[in-house]
Specification:
Distance between the termini of chain A: 22 Å
Strand order of the largest sheet of chain B: 1-7-6-5-4-2-3
Largest sheet of chain A: 8 strands, mixed
CATH superfamily of the largest domain in chain B: Type I PLP-dependent aspartate aminotransferase-like (Major domain)
Radius of gyration of chain A: 17 Å
Strand order of the largest sheet of chain A: 1-2-4-3-5-6-7-8
Oligomer: heterodimer
Number of strands of chain B: 12
Order of helices and strands of chain A: EEEHEHEHEHHHHHEHEHH
CATH topology of the largest domain in chain B: Aspartate Aminotransferase, domain 2
Order of helices and strands of chain B: HHHEHEHEHEHEHEEHHHHHEHEHEEHEH
Number of domains of chain B: 2
Largest interface: A-B, 46 and 55 residues
Helix content of chain A: 40-55%
Radius of gyration of chain B: 23 Å
Structural class of chain B: alpha/beta
CATH class of the largest domain in chain B: Alpha Beta
Number of helices of chain A: 11
Strand content of chain B: 5-15%
Number of helices of chain B: 17
Chain lengths: ~270, ~450
């Protein structure tokens, strides 16, 4: 579906179901340089089981217009604006990687609106490798290739996508190259590198929170994810073996199972 | 100790490694080092919720082997990885892969622009069978790049061609034709069976869908039929209103829009969800496994195919019984320079040559070679020969033969990986027999 936030058109996948204001809202926020497509193996389930699942394209990404937002704080406010723009007063947030920084910041800023927070491959800070950052800001496709290498665990490098026939390293590459690299990945990496408020923001979070981490995640290692989770009262942690940073694709079924249990328990769907 | 800063390099696996490993994780398959053959029709559901989620494309997994199968899935991922594609769908043959591609793209009333130099079966599909489904085609000679542009109509949904035409070895100017297609907002579909991804990756030159008959070089052993379509993932189906079946809500899956939901894998998802469900040209797991065995040695075999082919080109070019030789490695081949650009790792192992003495000499040659096999296949590890005018293209009338660039003296040679001296010795036997009737008639 398309709607406007700050006069720019926003695209969000609804998981193949029409948006229904009566249903509780879950917003999925993608990682650096990526799009709503990364959530396809999670959103459709929720959309068909009593929720409005909204996998957004951040401004300037995927099918959304406008320019990429330059800071995590701006993105956090933008997510709040999305909740209002679609006519809801509250939402459950799910983030991946950079999306974790955004949703942590958003939850700390708007504690009354955010009912649950689910973090995948999250950390309190994501400092960027200076060379990778430079490549992305200079529009070098090698930045995408490096990201795809580091984002997939050793097992994920062989493939074995849960959807038959899909090769996820190439799919991820295509998503990250779908818009100009410096305007998406470059801006996002710089925003991640600049963001310093993650740990302080985490301390303010009081809603039920889940962190899904992966043993082979090189971009947001388990110890960083645990450090963030330890600052959030009552945070649950689930660790996936033999899996890298792209857990939502590499181990999509496991992620969905954990996410499903967490969200339906803490933010129940309306019965159909 | 050096203080030189180490350059960052992506360590994703490269071609030869992907040929052996892509698409398969042993630890998820009881530690089996070899890909298991999942010889089953169907798969247990965990519960009713799981079944519904699979049917509704809410999660990945297998339901019924007509739609997908774990062994076939490994093959699909492996070929997608080798081609640089986002997704692939394997089928029972190369022809079914072409048919499924067209039926996923087109509806009745649509039109395609098609290269005239194709395998005879493919010509008949486009010329005779697709019109029965309301899909019309305009044929253009592969070297007539401007002709492709002129042939595009309002209802044209794509351009299709073989990268190197069968059997005349004409090469499509893929980058230019891709630009023509993209300027018109339509995809370019390329049958790259002759090349395999070892010789050419069409996505790097603008193609949007790549099709293979895996029966040929990819498998190599000539034991199993198989085909595949591979998606490049770059084509924007939502850029215009030409592809409503990709972009509009699809009744068959609760109003799903394939393009919105699956983006760079939308075409493959639709081909599987709709095409395999409704037409069902599925690949057997045994044949998928057989093809995987061939792909493991693809680069090794292709190097030998190409070196043998270049040796045969030299041999044939100097031979007294040969009127002409067509192969992109020949300097006076019209597409020699284009071939260097598109086929940097080798120009392939298909050679067309004209035998002096015409049809009778051709028949004598074919009937007398002993090592080379006379059959209707190409891309076997063994050397294969056929006389197209009386074999693969025999269902064409005289005018169609001429338009397809075929002549009665043409022999199609698929060079195998035998010892090159043995192939040449065998051809000497064939040429001696071919000269005999002419010598007799000259007396």
């Amino acid at each position: 579906m398309k709607f406007k936030v700050n006069n720019d058109e926003v695209f969000a996948s609804t998981g193949g179901r029409p948006f229904d204001k009566k249903k509780p809202l879950i917003i999925f926020v993608h990682g650096s340089g990526l799009t709503h497509m990364t959530w396809v193996l999670q959103t459709r389930y929720f959309a068909f089981h009593g929720y409005n699942a909204l996998a957004v394209d951040l401004p300037g990404h995927g099918l959304s217009s406008g320019e990429s937002l330059k800071s995590i704080e701006e993105m956090a406010d933008w997510v709040n604006n999305v909740i209002e723009a679609v006519g809801h007063k509250e939402a459950s947030l799910v983030g991946h990687s950079q999306g974790c920084l955004v949703t942590v910041e958003c939850t700390s800023r708007y504690p009354d609106k955010i009912k649950t927070l689910s973090l995948m491959g999250g950390a309190g800070a994501i400092p960027m490798n200076p060379e990778l950052l430079s490549l992305a800001e200079n529009n070098d496709p090698k930045a995408v290739d490096l990201m795809m290498d580091w984002a997939h665990g050793p097992a994920g490098h062989f493939g074995g996508h849960p959807v038959p026939g899909l090769y996820h390293i190439n799919t991820g590459t295509m998503l990250a190259k779908s818009r100009t690299i410096q305007n998406t990945l470059g801006v996002d990496f710089r925003a991640c590198d600049n963001y310093k408020n993650g740990f302080e923001a985490a301390k303010k979070i009081k809603c039920p929170t889940l962190s899904i981490l992966a043993t082979d995640d090189k971009m947001c290692p388990v110890k960083e994810g645990k450090k963030l989770a330890s600052l959030i009262d009552g945070s649950q942690v689930d660790i996936i073996d033999n899996c890298g940073h792209m857990m939502l694709l590499e181990e999509a079924d496991r992620v969905l199972t954990v996410l499903k249990k967490f969200i339906t328990t803490n933010y129940p769907p309306i019965s159909s | 100790m050096s203080d030189k800063k180490k350059e960052l390099k992506p360590n994703t696996y490269k071609f030869d490694t992907l040929s052996l490993h892509a698409g398969y994780q042993p630890h998820k398959n009881a530690g089996s080092r070899q890909v298991p053959i999942y010889q089953t029709t169907s798969y247990l559901f965990d519960d009713v919720d799981h079944a519904a989620a699979l049917f509704n494309l809410e999660r990945g997994g297998h339901i019924y082997s007509r739609i997908s199968n774990p062994t076939v899935g490994v093959l699909e991922e492996r070929v997608a990885s080798l081609e640089g594609g986002t997704a692939a769908l394997a089928t029972s043959s190369g022809m079914s892969a072409i048919f499924l591609t067209v039926m996923t793209l087109c509806e009745a009333g649509d039109h395609l622009v098609v290269s005239s130099q194709l395998y005879g079966g493919t010509v008949n599909l486009f010329r005779l069978t697709l019109p029965k489904f309301g899909i019309k085609c305009t044929f253009v000679k592969p070297r007539d790049t401007e002709g492709f542009k002129k042939a595009i109509q309002k209802n044209t949904k794509g351009i299709f061609g073989e990268l190197v035409g069968n059997p005349g070895n004409e090469i499509m100017n893929m980058p230019e034709i891709a630009k023509i297609a993209h300027d018109a907002g339509i995809p370019l579909m390329v049958d790259a069976t002759y090349q395999t991804p070892y010789l050419c990756k069409p996505f790097e030159h603008g193609a949007d869908i790549v099709i293979h008959s895996l029966t040929k070089w990819m498998a190599g052993h000539g034991s199993s039929m198989a085909g595949i379509l591979v998606e490049g993932g770059k084509f924007d189906w939502m850029q215009n209103d030409k592809f409503p079946t990709m972009t509009k809500p699809y009744e068959g899956y609760h109003g799903l829009s394939f393009a919105e939901e699956f983006g760079p894998t939308a075409f493959t998802m639709k081909a599987r969800a709709e095409g395999m469900r409704d037409f069902g040209p599925c690949l057997s797991p045994q044949n998928a496994w057989n093809v995987l065995q061939g792909i493991e040695t693809l680069s090794v075999r292709m190097k030998k195919h190409c070196s043998n082919a270049e040796e045969m080109v030299k041999y044939l070019s100097k031979h007294e019984s040969v009127a002409w030789v067509s192969h992109p490695s020949v300097p006076d081949h019209p597409d020699h320079e284009l071939a260097k650009k598109l086929l940097p790792n080798g120009r392939g192992s298909m050679i067309a040559f004209g035998i002096k003495g015409g049809k009778d000499a051709g028949v004598a040659f074919i009937n007398n070679v002993k090592l080379a096999s006379h059959l209707a296949n190409v891309g076997d590890t063994r050397t294969l020969v056929i006389h197209p005018a009386s074999g693969t293209h025999s269902q064409m009338d005289e005018a169609t033969l001429k338009f397809a660039g075929l002549s009665h003296d043409m022999i199609r040679l698929s060079v195998g990986i035998e010892d090159i001296d043995d192939i040449k010795n065998d051809f000497e036997i064939g040429f001696r027999a071919a000269r005999k009737p002419r010598l007799v008639s000259n007396q």
